[in-house]
Amino acid sequence: MADDLLERVRATGLLPAGADVVVLLSGGRDSVCLLDVAAAVGCRPRALHVNYGLRQEADADEAHCLALCERMGLEVVVHSARRPEDAPGNLHAWARDVRYGEAARVAGGGIVAVGHTATDQAETILYRLATSPGRRALLGMRPRSGQLVRPLLGITREETATWCRARGLAWREDASNEAERFARARVRTGLVPALEAVDGRALANVVRTAHLLREEAEVLDVVVDTALAGRDRIALEHLGALPTALARLVVRRLAEAATGGLCARAAKRVDDILALGASGALDVGDGARAVVEGGVLRFTRTPSAARRA
Predict the structure, then answer these.
(1) Which range of residues forms the domain containing residue 21?
(2) Helices in 132-274 by DSSP H: which ranges?
(3) Which of 103, 188, 304, 308 has its CA 20 to 30 A from that of 62?
(4) Which value, to the nearest 10 degrees, does the dihedral of the CA atoms of residues 113, 114, 117, 121 take?
(5) Rounded to two decimals, what is the model's pTM?
(6) How far apart are the first and last CA of the chain?
(7) Helices 2-12 and 157-166, interaxial angle, to 10°?
(8) What is the mean pLDDT of residues 142-155?
């Protein structure tokens, strides 16, 4: 099992032998497995543990990570963070921004590895499918996003636990992962078991479907590139002649290129944009404004979004 898991991780190419890697170490089974695997495949891993002080067990988690890295002979960086009372967004978003920001600082331009597994991938897709309509909800997490890599996306949570037991590596359990007040936990404890009762391959099928859709998304990106021919605008007449699905993708691409962020709502406004005629402007949401001049569509940021930037 160990050799098979290592070969699957090596095959991703995300953890090159000899590479300096910062591993986000929470102390849970997946991150503990990832830290050990990174060393086993020949990387030079360092651990980063973020103590948010949000749980009574937070200091014990930190102590566990320090002891684990000492035992493994690996460097560990501990970052303590406390959420400001006026911090925008929800708690999970704040914590994510803190750990990824600190990881980028510690890694410089190097690799940052996180322990998301195939099980996490399936749960993420199911959660997004319920909360975020559209094709992107089904694509799941990317194996690589800039300097961030997810080498365990082909490994299940059960396999990381088996690895840790075989290697004599203890891990910490976060009770909040099962807390019913969190929507993601309800997916894990309610929806996932229900799907597995229908078919034991349910999660594997979800992950496989996401992989296929990501491959097909690359083809769609080429089609959009062809439709735009390298331009940051398109004639409204040309846009209206495109198949409806392609027109939505073109509009979304232009909006996101102009704003630098996700613009899911832009794709829903194709008919409204076409109705502008030879000239006009329309705010389509997510900080994007469609502008038509001389029958040609381009996008800008809305004034309020531009001021915030």
Answers:
(1) 2-205
(2) 157-166, 183-186, 192-198, 202-228, 236-241, 244-259, 270-274
(3) 188
(4) -110
(5) 0.81
(6) 49
(7) 120
(8) 95
Residue 62 domain-assigned?
Answer: yes
Distance between CA 267 and CA 247 in Å, rounded?
Answer: 8
∠ CA 13-256-241, nearest 5°, is 110
Residues 59 and 126 in one domain: yes
185 has a pLDDT exceeding 90: no
For residue 62, which of 75, 76, 73, 74 has the smallest C-alpha distance?
76
Mean pLDDT of 140-156: 94
Whether 152 is in a domain gets the answer yes
Shared domain for 36 and 184, answered yes or no, is: yes
Residues 56 and 129 both lie in one domain? yes
Same domain, 60 and 95: yes
7, pLDDT greater than 90: yes
CA angle 245, 261, 218 (to 5 degrees): 45
pLDDT at position 87, please? 72
pLDDT at residue 306, as a whole number: 52
